[in-house]
Design brief:
Elements: H1 4-7, H2 23-37, H3 63-66, E1 72-77, H4 91-94, H5 96-105, E2 108-111, H6 117-120, H7 130-141, E3 145-152, H8 159-162, H9 168-185, E4 192-197, H10 212-217, H11 220-232, E5 237-242, H12 250-264, E6 271-274, E7 277-279, H13 288-296, E8 301-312, H14 321-340, E9 344-349, H15 359-362, E10 366-367, H16 380-391
Parallel strand pairs: 1-2, 1-9, 2-3, 3-4, 4-5, 5-6, 6-8, 7-8, 8-9
Antiparallel strand pairs: 8-10
Helix pairs in contact: 2-5, 9-11, 13-14, 14-16
The chain binds ligand G3I.
GO molecular function, one term: endo-1,4-beta-xylanase activity
Protein name: Beta-xylanase
Pfam family, one: Glyco_hydro_10
């Protein structure tokens, strides 16, 4: 398994090839931080910082550099899904400035959509590995680890699967073959797999109807999926993953019980992933750390796998400084909670610019959920993350 610090570049500059011509984007991103790194009353740049938006001092320019040893800060690699309906080309494969920041800032990548069934297994017996390969290759070129997402889910399944008239035995074989093929293809190159995603609904019930696998094969199929994934890649850490499980609540309680049962049965379950799709209008889940800790106490790893923090958008579309500060506090507290729990060493943003975020598509009233402006300049949340990482070194 790769180690973040063994491959990343030093504070002085990039050693990587791709996108070096676009270092302006990263320079733009870190400019206010650099100003703060070298405070100088005579520096004319100091005067360019608007009142109330001074960036506190930070030692490092990038999240990956600021992170303590062995701690991974990730982002989803934007592509597929909602992007297909937008008036831009596939972000991950075509936007060089975006790729530059993705490489500079992060030590872990997650496939936003590219490893989901409908993309990687679009027809029965046909796989399309191109987009997923591109992510894994990019990650290796840039000294990043990869989180695989996902193998067993109720959503984004191809029509041939959902509409197919398969017997339970056939379905079981289809899932086994898929996991063997996909996990096997990337064996040794994926740090963590979200094996089962969102198998519990908003009423804290197992998705026995929506999820084709559980509906047709029973909850035991989840354990089998973990066993098959482990056989295909014994090195990969295998996770349960869901949203609205940040705090200790009815839904996370279901996972806590399930995790105990799986471990008692000797299932190769290694981690619990908390997605972290937060909104400032619903308050901060103050017991996140305790929740992560109780899973850690079972002997599991934990991770924040998809964080973003939505803001209710004002009419003029421009949240005020107070809203961004509140958002920054949510990001910072989530990161600090993870950093405080042993075995929580992966913290992934579900994108870092609003332009490519899923949030405005799903929540028309909310937005500004990411840590950077669309020109990659930092929001307070970015600086808050940088500071929290530095403080944990
Ligand atoms: O499948 C339909 C298709 O039938 C239809 O013709 C087409 C036109 O509107 O839409 C297709 O659905 C899209 C889907 O991706 C399929 O790829 C949705 O509109 C689109 O909004 C959806 O977006 C993805 C979403 O997962 C799907 O649930 C997002 O890009 C992706 O960021 C998001 O990621 C999820 C994680 O995987 C799991 N946790 C929550 C997170 C945010 O929703």
């Amino acid at each position: 398994m790769q180690h973040r610090r063994s491959t990343h570049h030093g504070a002085g500059g990039s050693t990587r090839g791709p996108g070096r011509a676009l270092r302006w984007s990263a320079a733009l991103l870190v400019a206010p931080v650099l100003v703060a790194c070298a405070p100088d009353a005579e520096d004319p740049q100091d005067d360019q910082t608007p009142p109330g938006q001074e960036q506190p001092e930070t030692q490092f320019d990038t999240l990956r550099e600021a992170a303590p040893e062995g701690f991974y800060v990730g982002s989803a690699a934007a592509g597929g899904g909602h992007h297909l309906e937008q008036d831009y080309d596939d972000p991950f494969t075509t936007d060089e400035a975006y790729r530059e920041v993705l490489a500079e800032q992060f030590s872990s990548l997650s496939a936003e959509n590219q490893m989901k069934w409908e993309f990687i297994h679009p027809e029965q017996g046909e796989y399309d590995f191109g987009p997923a390969d591109a992510i894994v290759d990019f990650a290796e070129e840039n000294g990043q680890v990869v989180r695989g997402h996902t193998l067993l889910w109720h959503s984004q399944n191809p029509e041939w699967l959902e509409e197919g008239d398969f017997t339970p035995e056939e379905l079981r074989e289809i899932l086994r073959e898929h996991i063997e093929t996909v996990v096997g293809r990337y064996a040794g190159r994926i740090q963590q797999w979200d094996v089962a995603n969102e198998i519990v609904d908003d009423d804290a019930e197992i998705r026995t109807e929506e999820n084709i696998w559980i509906r047709e094969l029973g909850i035991e199929i989840v354990s089998d999926a973990f066993r098959w994934a482990h056989e295909a890649d014994p090195e990969a850490e295998l996770f349960l993953n869901d949203y609205s499980v940040e705090g200790i609540n009815a839904k996370s309680d279901v996972y806590y019980g399930l995790a105990q049962d799986m471990l008692d049965d000797g299932v190769p379950l290694h981690g619990f992933g908390v997605q972290g799709h937060l909104s400032t209008q619903y308050g901060y889940p103050g017991d996140l750390q305790q929740n992560l800790q109780r899973f850690a106490d079972l002997g599991l790893k934990t991770a924040i796998t998809e964080i973003d923090v939505r803001i209710v958008m004002p009419e003029d579309g421009q949240p005020d400084q107070g809203a961004f500060e509140q958002q920054a506090a949510y990001y910072r507290m989530s990161l600090e909670a993870c950093l405080a729990v042993e075995g929580c060493d992966s913290f992934t943003l579900w994108g870092f610019v609003d332009r490519y975020s899923w949030v405005p598509v799903f929540f028309p009233e909310e937005g500004a959920a990411t840590v950077m402006e669309d020109d990659y300049s930092p929001r307070p949340a970015f600086t808050a993350l940088l500071q929290a990482l530095e403080a944990a070194r």
